[in-house]
Amino acid sequence: GLNLVTTMMGRGTATPQQLALYGLSRTEKAVTGAVVGTDTMKQLFRTAKRKLFIDIPGNGLMLAVPLKSVSSGRTLAYLTDSGKAATGGGVPTMNFDYELIVVILNEGHSDMVMDAARSAGAGGGTVLHAKGTGTSSAPKFFGVLLAEEKEMIYIVVHRDKRNEIMSAIMRDAGMASKAKSICFTLPV
Length: 188
Known about the structure:
Shape: globular
Number of helices: 5
Mean pLDDT: 81
């Protein structure tokens, strides 16, 4: 009954050794997102545990990112089918134990980023295909602006490991590297 659900296709970052343990050659992932109120979020988590066994390691990951603001009351009403803020009003608290590191990088360099992240204690991540837009210096082909191919990596980490992992990514795969990574976190 949700008004807007988006699904992005990606791939896991498991090493060849990890995949060999399970007899897999690759791990495809689907990242699904929706904006919901607190009650619906709790219902989705309960249903995912019951029907998808999401609370058992290896069956995926489910997280909630707090919504801080929306462009208008009509947008909020459409997204949540209620018009009520997810936290009952006001700005949500941002004191969470876990964070989602979002890394944006040049396509084809996700292994470089994940090697850096793992060296600092990250377990794994999910790679999504993306296109870079908004740059006036992007190349043109027959007068058509070509967007740069990008990748995004999502890595869920405990907040105590965030700085170390982000520092390793920027040191080994940051703007001075071919990956040209940037990263930021969201509370989950």
